[in-house]
Amino acid sequence: MLEKNKDKYGTRRNLISLVWLLMVSLAFVGCSRDAEKAAETTGEKLDKDFRVVAVSYPLQYLTSRIAGSLVAVDCPVPPDVVDPSQWKPSRKSILAMQSADLVIANGVGANYAKWLPKVSLPESRLCRAATKGLSLSDYIAVEDVSMVHSHGPEGEHSHPTMVSRTWLDPAIANKQAVYIAAQLEKKYPQFAAEFAVNLAALTKDLDRLTDLLQPSSGEALVPLVTATPLQKFFARAAGVGDLHLTWFAIPDAEQADLDLKAVLKDAEATEGVVLFDRELPSAEVLAVLKAQGFRPLSLDLLDQPPAKGDFLSSLEANVVALKKALGR
Asked: For the chain, which terminus, N or C, has the lower number of CB atoms within 10 Å?
C-alpha cells in the first residue's frame, strides 16, 4: 500500500516538474522574440525605417555625408537622365517621395527641380535647403534671354531668372549642408551627435575646396565668361567674371564673334576663358574663340553621379581644371 502511494506521489512530482520546465521554456522563447524585435528596430533595419529623398544628386551627396549609415538617402532621378532638372517623375517616384520622412530640395529661391511644384508633398517634410538656408546675397539672378516678351509700356524685355546649381560653389554648398543637418536633427534627434560629427567632416572638405578656388594675392585676373549662366555659382566662387553669352549657348560662329567682342570691350581685356557646360561647341565657334584670344573649357555640371569618384572629387577636378585654364 505504501509502495503504491509512493509511486503515485513520484509520478505527480514528475508531471509538475515537466509542466514547470515547459512554462520556463515558453517564457524564454517569448523573451528571445522580444529581444529580436528590439534588435530589428535599432539595428539592421535602420535603412528601411528612416528614409530621406533628395531631388538632385548633389543634394543627395550632401545629405548622405551628414546622415551616414543611419538614414537611407535616395534620389528618384535615374542616372541616365542628362538634365535632371527637366525630368518628370513617375507615379511610383511620387509615392516614394510622399512616404519619405524628408524631401531635400533647393526651394523657390533657386528651384532646381522644375517638376517639384507639381508634386503634392506635406510642407512639414519639405526641406528647402536654398530658400531657407541662404541669404539674398548668396543668390545669382540673370536675365533669361530665352523668354523675351512684351507687355505694358516697358516694351520688349525679359525677367530675371535665378541660377539653380548653388552647390557648384563649395561655400554655398556648405551653407546648405548646415541647414540640411539642422532639419535631419529635428527629424531624428536621437542621431544629433552623429550628424554633428559628419557635418564637421563635410565642412572641412568643402572649406578646403573654397580655399583652393580663391585667387592668390596680387594675381592678375583673367576674364572668365560662362557660355550659359548654369556655371555662374562656380565662376563667382573662383572670384572671376560675371558675364555670359547667351542662355542656351553660343548659337553660331557669327553670334560668337559679336558676343566675344562685346565681352572683351566690357572687360577691357585681350584674352580670357570661356566656360562651357558638359561639352565644347562646334569647330567653327572654337576657331572664333581662338581668334579672339579666348581659351575654351568644358566642365561637368555634376548633375549625376560620376563614373568614378563622387560629387566632392568631381567638384575638385573642376576646380583644378579651371585653375589651370586661368593660368593659376
From this structure: N
Q: Nearest CA to 132 among 112, 108, 116, 113?
A: 108
Within 10 A of 47 (CB to CB), how many other CB atoms are there?
A: 12
**Which CATH fold would you assign to the domain 214-325?**
Rossmann fold (3.40.50)
* pLDDT of 42: 35
The number of C-alpha atoms within 13 Å of 75 and in the hemisphere containing its C-beta is 23
**DSSP summary character for residue 56:** S
Q: Which CATH superfamily is domain 46-136+166-211 in?
A: Nitrogenase molybdenum iron protein domain (3.40.50.1980)
Whether 138 and 167 have beta carbons less than 8 Å apart is answered as no
pLDDT at 248: 53
Contact 226, 250 (CB under 8 A): no
Between CA 257 and CA 319 the distance in angstroms is 27
With beta carbons less than 8 A apart as the criterion, state whether 176 and 133 touch: yes
pTM of the model: 0.78
Q: For strands 141-143 and 160-162, give the pairing.
A: antiparallel
In the sheet that holds 224-226, the strands lie side by side as: 243-244, 224-226, 272-277, 294-299
User: Same fold for the domain at 46-136+166-211 and the one at 214-325?
Assistant: yes
